[in-house]
Automatic annotation (TrEMBL):
<dbReference type="Pfam" id="PF02577">
    <property type="entry name" value="BFN_dom"/>
</dbReference>
<dbReference type="InterPro" id="IPR036104">
    <property type="entry name" value="BFN_sf"/>
</dbReference>
<dbReference type="InterPro" id="IPR003729">
    <property type="entry name" value="Bi_nuclease_dom"/>
</dbReference>
<feature type="compositionally biased region" description="Basic and acidic residues">
    <location>
        <begin position="132"/>
        <end position="151"/>
    </location>
</feature>
<feature type="region of interest" description="Disordered">
    <location>
        <begin position="130"/>
        <end position="155"/>
    </location>
</feature>
<dbReference type="GO" id="GO:0004518">
    <property type="term" value="F:nuclease activity"/>
</dbReference>
<protein>
    <recommendedName>
        <fullName>BFN domain-containing protein</fullName>
    </recommendedName>
</protein>
<feature type="domain" description="BFN">
    <location>
        <begin position="1"/>
        <end position="132"/>
    </location>
</feature>
<feature type="compositionally biased region" description="Acidic residues">
    <location>
        <begin position="174"/>
        <end position="191"/>
    </location>
</feature>
<feature type="region of interest" description="Disordered">
    <location>
        <begin position="172"/>
        <end position="197"/>
    </location>
</feature>
Length: 197
């Protein structure tokens, strides 16, 4: 198992669904999990320590465990099958450790309230996690793709040559003099443009 923390809760711009992003401790690996809007709200409220007037469902579950003298030890994301994540609550009661099946979103909402570790099965992290360095292209790759010269047709080449002629005849010294307010100075067509350094 790999220990993770909740990095953020985000909203997808394409379909407005919520995603909780788990980050591996001491590593730059991220595990995004799609969750429902109510679970996203429950996690966000607990992360931001917002006080609510009445207990929410995950507060209720925490209170029930406490009333029964049971202790939540940790929550786990144990499997990924057919694009569905499976969660687990590890609860201690009367010296016995119980594994209780749970959706990861509910387990996470409870973990934030109980301040317990969140663990993810290594196979799940290997299969579904994102590593920014590996997933983003290196800077050299896009440059190679972009720097390949495109074959221009004659018409496009002709249009570009007009700009090249303009730039070659442009005299920067004349521009500086005209900024000084001297009017009537005309460009000397016989004068050679300054050479590039």
């Amino acid at each position: 198992m790999v220990e993770v923390v909740i990095d953020s809760v985000r909203v997808s711009l394409t379909n407005q669904q919520r995603i909780v992003v788990l980050r591996e401790i001491n590593a730059e690996r991220y595990l995004p999990i799609w969750i429902g809007p109510y679970e996203a709200e429950a996690i966000t409220i607990a992360l931001q320590e917002i006080e609510v007037a009445r207990p929410q469902t995950h507060d209720l579950l925490k209170n029930v465990l406490s009333s029964l003298n049971a202790r939540l030890l940790r929550v786990e994301v144990v499997a990924l099958r057919d694009d569905v994540f499976y969660g687990n609550l590890v609860v201690e009661h009367n010296g016995e450790v119980l594994n209780i099946d749970s959706r990861p979103s509910d387990a996470l909402a409870l973990a934030v309230r109980a301040h317990v570790p969140i663990l993810v099965a290594r196979e799940v992290m290997d299969a579904a996690s994102i590593t920014p360095e590996k997933d983003l292209q290196t800077p050299e790759e896009p440059r190679e793709a972009v720097s390949k010269p495109e074959v221009l047709d004659e018409e496009a080449d002709e249009r570009l040559s007009v700009f090249e002629d303009f730039l070659q005849k442009l005299n920067i010294g004349d521009l500086d003099e005209s900024e000084g307010g001297e009017e009537g100075d005309e460009e000397n067509p016989d004068e050679e443009p300054p050479k590039k350094r």
